[in-house]
């Protein structure tokens, strides 16, 4: 895939192309029982759906969209309860293979410990193989626990892959500490991510928020701006034209996107 860099010269601007590496994208899905709780969103038949249902749908939307951009991206899948376990080890661009892996996702028994060290070791091992093929590896973790802070031990000078996180949680309460969990995930991201890593969180229990976060993760790590500068989607007020641009007594229509 070609990226465009803009350079300014004496006579104006010129466009210089640079090559983006194809991605090997490793999903890791939290399969603690909190991943199977019902959310506010309902299915087409009016029945409630679970957090895992929405995760599966979001992953498949991501895979289809990513391959439509570049059919040479590849995907593999792991899960995490206490530690990381392979769900589908071989990286592949095959849609049917990804769909089969996602269909196999399901919650396990409760676990009050989450070891990201095992996940990072696995990702680092795979990243070396990706690098040898002029590819880059990205790890996307979808974490669902509201009271279990993930742990990790990792050398500060080993940043071999990009790390993205989507954190789905319950509201704070006597038994929940989502802020502390989120802070631990931010610390892990800052510690290991090679390129700019993104982290998004939601305690709303609404599937569309997850889908929106997953769409933002479609951005290639080598093209990203800082997460602090990311302003997508923009507030509705920023989409409205200045008041003086509308003719007198004309109603300016507002649409939601």
Q: Considering the protein shown, what is the CATH homologous superfamily?
A: von Willebrand factor, type A domain
Span from first to last CA?
A: 29 Å
CATH architecture assignment name: 3-Layer(aba) Sandwich
Query: What is the helix content?
Result: 25-40%
Q: What is the domain tally?
A: 1
Which regions are unreliable across 5 or more consecutive residues at pLDDT < 50? 245-257
Please state roughly what percent of the residues sit in beta strands, choosing from under 5%, 5-15%, 15-25%, 25-35%, 35-45% or over 45%.
25-35%
Name of the CATH first level: Alpha Beta
Order of strands, widest sheet: 7-6-3-8-9-10
What overall geometry do the principal axes of the alpha carbons give?
globular
- Structure annotation, total helices: 5
Query: H/E series, N to C?
Result: EEEEEHEEHHEEHEH
Number of strands: 10
Q: How many whole angstroms does the radius of gyration measure?
A: 20 Å
CATH fold-level topology: Rossmann fold
Q: What is the residue-mean pLDDT, rounded to a whole number? A: 86
Main beta-sheet annotation: 6 strands, mixed
- Class from helix and strand fractions: alpha/beta
Task: Give the gist of this structure.
Belongs to the BABAM1 family. The protein is of the alpha/beta class.
Q: Which secondary structure elements does this structure contain, and how are they paired or packed?
A:
Layout (H helix, E strand, L loop, with lengths): L1 E8 L2 E8 L2 E9 L7 E5 L5 E3 H19 L4 E7 L3 E9 L2 H9 L12 H17 L2 E9 L18 E7 L9 H15 L6 E4 L4 H10 L41
Parallel strand pairs: 3-6, 3-8, 8-9, 9-10
Antiparallel strand pairs: 1-2, 4-5, 6-7
Helix pairs in contact: 1-2, 1-5
């Amino acid at each position: 895939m070609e990226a465009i860099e803009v350079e300014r010269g004496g006579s104006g601007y010129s466009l210089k192309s640079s090559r983006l590496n194809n991605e090997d994208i490793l999903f890791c899905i939290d399969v603690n029982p909190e991943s199977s709780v019902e959310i506010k969103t309902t299915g087409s038949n009016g029945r409630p759906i679970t957090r895992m249902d929405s995760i599966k749908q979001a992953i498949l939307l991501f895979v289809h969209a990513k391959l439509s951009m570049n059919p040479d991206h590849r995907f593999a899948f792991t899960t995490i309860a206490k530690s990381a376990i392979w769900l589908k080890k071989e990286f592949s661009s095959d849609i049917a293979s990804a769909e089969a892996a996602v269909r196999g996702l399901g919650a396990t028994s409760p676990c009050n410990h989450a070891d990201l060290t095992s996940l990072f070791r696995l990702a680092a091992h795979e990243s070396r193989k990706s690098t040898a093929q002029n590819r880059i590896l990205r790890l996307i973790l979808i974490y669902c626990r509201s009271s279990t802070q993930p742990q990790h031990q990792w050398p500060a000078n080993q940043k071999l892959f990009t790390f993205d996180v989507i954190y789905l949680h319950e509201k704070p309460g006597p038994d929940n500490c989502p802020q502390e969990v989120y802070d631990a995930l931010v610390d892990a991201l800052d510690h290991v991510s090679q390129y700019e890593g993104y982290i998004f969180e939601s305690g709303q229990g609404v599937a569309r928020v997850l889908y929106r976060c997953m769409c933002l993760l479609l951005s290639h790590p080598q093209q990203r701006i800082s997460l602090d500068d990311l302003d997508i989607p923009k507030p509705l007020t920023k989409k409205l034209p200045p008041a003086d641009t509308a003719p007198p007594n004309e109603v300016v229509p507002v649409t939601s996107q």
